[in-house]
Amino acid sequence: MDPIRNPYAPGAGQRPPELAGRDEQLAAFDVVLERVANGRPERSLVLTGLRGVGKTVLLNALRGAAVRKGWGTGKLEARPGQGLRRPLSSALHQAVRELGHRDEESVDHVLGVIKSFAHRDAGAGARMKDQWSPGIDAPAVRGRADSGDIEIDLVELFTDLGGLAGDVGKGVGVFIDEMQDLGPDDVSALCAACHELSQSGLPVIVVGAGLPHLPAVLSASKSYSERLFRYQRIDRLSRDAADRALVAPAADEDAAYDDDALAAMYEATGGYPYFIQAYGKAVWDLAPRSPITAADVAVAAPEAESELAVGFFGSRYERATPGERDYLMAMADVAAAHPGAGGDEDSVPSADVAAALGKKPQSLSPARDALLKKGLVYSGERGRIAFTVPHFGRYLRERG
């Protein structure tokens, strides 16, 4: 097969040639956009799932849908230890530009509020050279979104932004990736701002994406967050959707798979979108001709697994210290010894991990906490722990 015509795209956050299995979420979001723009009440949206299921791709697709409706949009990626003010200010600056409001005075006012919100990050009385600027020419608006209390400031900022969007009959969408990495104060402020928006009916929504424990993070911040957001679990693809993700791009290049090849691909990938793209690329490059067969899949599997071992699994494994790697390996062994419905994707009791290492659970808290901060594991419920990456346990066991 011609590698130049290879249609598959195994990149982080890179949209695949066929966004299969997400039609329901896209259709539902179109309804949200229309309702919000028409002053109807709607909840903000949170996407959750393991790494490799396509959360970022779907987040970008939803943002694209908002842009096509004429909305103002901005996107940011939360990072551990980073405050919300600076990245959010940049995102909202872009959103205001996309709205295309024709009243320069109104636009300058909102941009000035964004600038004031951003400058407060440096602290009261900071020298001009220490103040970060979001690239806004309008002067900062004093006394608005600059109190220093992130909760108060965010409510004021979103209120002014919503008023600007309402003037033109559109909305503003704030898209936040890796939302679980926001600090506690920022999570609380974001929930409070979304609560205010839902009560006032202003056309601003937040769309977040994060790991499976994100709902627990939000709930721990504000108890009403369970009713504030619409939660959508993004999971592996069904067999039909996984087949479509492979077949449709191949058909565009006048190629095909036989039925046994598709079955073998689903068995190898488990329906995870990132794995589908990785295996699809390797199989295409090594298959001699169309249609692609199960034998071609078997020949290409080691190549795909080698690529995943370095770029997807290995890069994460290398971030762990020796003690943390022991903890990860114990998790993999416990999952293999007591497999649930999801295998390595299921959580395991922290006490069992400690028992496998012959240590007391309290002594392993530093390793566990470090792995949580590095995003290699997550805890969806008290006393249990799980990998954030599908098939990671299998990788660890094969590594030995």
Automatic annotation (TrEMBL):
<protein>
    <submittedName>
        <fullName>ATP-binding protein</fullName>
    </submittedName>
</protein>
<dbReference type="Pfam" id="PF13191">
    <property type="entry name" value="AAA_16"/>
</dbReference>
<keyword id="KW-0349">Heme</keyword>
<dbReference type="InterPro" id="IPR041664">
    <property type="entry name" value="AAA_16"/>
</dbReference>
<keyword id="KW-0067">ATP-binding</keyword>
<dbReference type="InterPro" id="IPR009056">
    <property type="entry name" value="Cyt_c-like_dom"/>
</dbReference>
<feature type="domain" description="Cytochrome c">
    <location>
        <begin position="166"/>
        <end position="317"/>
    </location>
</feature>
<keyword id="KW-0479">Metal-binding</keyword>
<dbReference type="GO" id="GO:0005524">
    <property type="term" value="F:ATP binding"/>
</dbReference>
<keyword id="KW-0408">Iron</keyword>
<dbReference type="InterPro" id="IPR027417">
    <property type="entry name" value="P-loop_NTPase"/>
</dbReference>
<keyword id="KW-0547">Nucleotide-binding</keyword>
